[in-house]
Amino acid sequence: MEFKRCERCGCFFTTTDNVCQNCMPRDNFEISKLRNYINDNNNANSIQDLSINTGISVKNLNRYLNENEFSGIYDKLNLNNQQQGNISINL
Fold it and tell me: Which of its termini does the chain have fewer beta carbons within 10 Å around, N or C?
């Protein structure tokens, strides 16, 4: 096991996952929500649209979309190829 920082909340923990045990249920819920949205819709034109339609933050969408499970999302949702990978966000 490695000592890591949770990608969701920032706390330190030891595990092989990227999020801590406290954040794991929320991540699983959002991944399920994203999966359902993708299966039912094909009308998002940007990561921001996808965020608005699902209620999932852009930061977390970028994390999820970089996983192999969602590798074909850009074609299915008509997202620009320029939007693949992480995007810069001004907060």
Answer: C
